Amino acid sequence: MAPSLLARTLPATSRTLLRAPRTPRTPPVQARFNSDDAAVKAKLNSIAAKARVVKTLPDFSMANKVCLVTGAARGLGNEFCRAFIQSGCTSLAIVDLKEEEAEHAAEELIKAACVDSEMEPSDYRVIGVGCDVSSELSVQQAFRRVMDTYGRVDSVVASAGIVENYSAFDYPFDRIKRLYDINVHGAFFTAREAARNMIPQGGGSVVLVASMSANIVNIPQPQTPYNAAKAAVKHMAASLGVEWAKKGVRVNTLSPGYMLTKLTRTILAHDQELKKTWESLTPMGRMGEPEDLAGAIVFLASDASRFMTGAEIRVDGGYCII
Ligand SMILES: NC(=O)c1ccc[n+]([C@@H]2O[C@H](COP(=O)([O-])OP(=O)(O)OC[C@H]3O[C@@H](n4cnc5c(N)ncnc54)[C@H](O)[C@@H]3O)[C@@H](O)[C@H]2O)c1
What we know:
- By secondary structure, the protein is of the alpha/beta class.
- It has one domain: NAD(P)-binding Rossmann-like Domain (Rossmann fold, 3-Layer(aba) Sandwich).
- 46% of the residues lie in helices and 12% in strands.
- It has a seven-stranded parallel β-sheet, with helices on both faces.
- Helix 5 crosses helix 12.
- The longest helix is centred in the middle third of the chain and has 29 residues, at 173-201.
- Residues 70-71, 73-77, 96-97, 131-134, 159-163, 182, 186, 209, 211, 256, 258-259, 261-264 line the site of nicotinamide-adenine-dinucleotide (NAD).
- InterPro entries: NAD(P)-bd_dom_sf, Sc_DH/Rdtase_CS, SDR_fam.
- Belongs to the short-chain dehydrogenases/reductases (SDR) family.
- GO terms for molecular function: mannitol 2-dehydrogenase (NADP+) activity; oxidoreductase activity, acting on NAD(P)H, oxygen as acceptor.
- One of its GO terms (biological process) is carbohydrate metabolic process.
């Protein structure tokens, strides 16, 4: 049997401890039945016990995959790492601007993964790597470190990114340039280095984190360069997906809507009313939690999406459809 077929996700208890859900979930099986019948309760308890170790479609497993995520010391990138670990990944590189923060995030991730699980810290090889994605040399050095450590890289996510809100007339050019250097060129350097290393090993999956802003114009805050940068990232993924389609490297885009992370909290800190506005513009009536992206990132990074390239998945509470 192929190693991936043996893989299963961690028990439900470990998943809960990695990150307690902050949004209401479907109530447990027992809560949906209103019966005092002891036999019914016993049956439900036995189903619940069996469900503690859930087998999922093997293609979603991240076991035996080496993953690299940029911008992963915090925010969405960090959540993507958690999702990979929860799906069986044990070899992972957390890439971020400051090496100490990346290393600290790696330690925290291992600690969380071992809580209430049969896994030991030594079962994981998670490293923190300092890298400025706007520098091609820095990205090349980060990939070299990962290749020296693991010998291969299978799934790469380019999540490092920044946003700023200036009207077009007020936006200083040096800041516009910095935004494009990180959000556009950083994604390109990451994807190109990923493909350079993946092609000789037979392929891999690259996910570029764009935004719903690649498809719509956010209101009321002005952010033209960010929106244009994210549209560039989306079309970059499509173009690279075609360029490398026959070489086994798939490139797709994940486009989140408004998610609660440091990036958005910084904007909201200056404008309490803005959150209400964003929520009212979102059909589902709320901002997303980072873990709302877990299913989509595992799908794109894993073999479950093996016939998909150049595509975009939007996870935005319905924002773009109205
Ligand atoms: N939060 C949202 O609502 C939202 C919505 C749509 C898209 N996005 C996109 O998701 C991605 C992640 O956003 P987030 O909310 O997690 O942001 P965040 O600010 O919480 O985290 C971004 C991470 O990227 C790192 N980073 C910044 N510049 C870097 C550089 N030059 N080199 C390496 N690392 C760098 C930061 O240190 C940080 O750890 C970004 O590309 C963002 O545009 C976010």
